[in-house]
Design goal:
Blueprint lengths: L5 E12 L3 E2 L5 E2 L1 E2 L4 E4 L1 H14 L13 H12 L4 H5 L3 H6 E6 L3 E6 L2 E3 L2 E3 L6 E10 L7 E20 L1 H7 L3 H16 L9 E11 L15 E3 L8 H5 L8 E3 L1 H8 L5 E8 L5 E2 L8
Helix pairs in contact: 1-6
């Protein structure tokens, strides 16, 4: 288990793609009509990480393949030479970090609350969803000369911020470790870059902040993403019209000075802060380093 609470702020960009389609609404991007913000579920973010774990050969319980829980459990038992559900789930990095509700008939049932909990992500800039229509590759019937049509939804350029907390208390049950959290950070960043499907092309990680709290400090900063601000490339306040015009990284700046100032007031409980930024991001930050 790990002993220090962590908090993560992750910002990434989505260009000419669908960040998170709603299957109950014709795969329309999840959207807050009041604020004109794109929404991304915590499930979508965790899937990004899990897919990267699978690519890297990590052992996961939810591998993305259509199968029942008992069948997947039997697969893993044979692969890992384990006997019980708890032993098997303890060998899977996704259940150690994200938790699991396990049921194997009357033999074994338990539920783990995941130490790592992601919040829903929201776009920092206003968006107007676009519907794109095109021609399919094949006709609907043999002998037809006209091919069928397809339609899909995209956003031109959405800057999405999401946050997560790694709760040290829950790790006592699941056995999640500091190494697991390092793996999570790596795969959140790299997994976002590797979202290479037709609807998910052009996902670009921009910023990942990790706040590590001192041991036994059971606290965290509420809604840290609200202390981030989009600016013009020159650092000026960005209005709604400017937000809708963003099409590339050079069109905006990301100001984290308010977040740094807020964390400065918490230096008695904060141990360390690490910042990873994309090469092309114009990051506006305080000149002095804060080390906790």
């Amino acid at each position: 288990m790990f002993k220090k609470r962590r908090q993560y702020v992750f910002v990434y960009a989505v260009k000419d793609a669908n960040p998170n389609g709603d299957p109950l609404n014709d795969n329309h991007p999840r959207f807050d009509e009041e604020t004109e913000q794109i929404l991304v579920s915590d499930v979508r973010v965790k899937r990004t990480v899990r897919d990267e774990w699978v690519r890297n050969g990590e052992t996961v319980f939810v591998d993305g393949e259509p199968k029942t829980m008992p069948n997947r459990f039997e697969e893993l038992k044979n692969e890992l030479h384990t006997k019980t559900g708890q032993e098997t789930m303890g060998r899977c990095i996704d259940t150690r970090l994200f938790g699991v509700t396990f049921s194997h008939g009357k033999k074994e049932t338990f539920s783990w609350t995941g130490p790592v909990q992601f919040q829903w992500g929201r776009s920092m800039n206003k968006q107007r969803v676009q519907m794109i229509q095109g021609t399919a590759a094949f006709a609907t019937k043999d002998g037809n000369e006209q091919r069928s049509f397809r339609s899909e939804y995209i956003v031109p350029y959405s800057i999405i911020a999401t946050t997560a907390i790694a709760n040290e208390s829950a790790s006592e049950t699941t056995g999640a470790t500091d190494d697991d959290l390092e793996n999570l950070k790596k795969c959140l960043w790299e997994g976002t870059k590797n979202l290479i499907t037709r609807s998910k092309m052009e996902h670009q990680p921009l910023l990942l902040i990790e706040i590590t709290y001192k041991e036994d400090m059971r606290t965290h900063l509420s809604t840290p993403e609200e202390f981030l601000k989009l600016t013009t490339p020159q650092g000026q306040t960005m209005n709604d019209e400017d937000q809708l015009k963003i099409r590339r990284t050079d069109d905006f700046g990301l100001d984290i000075r308010d977040l740094q100032a807020q964390l400065e007031t918490m230096k008695d409980v904060v141990d360390t802060i690490t910042i990873k930024k994309g090469d092309r991001l114009n990051l506006i930050e305080r000149t002095q380093d804060f080390k906790g």
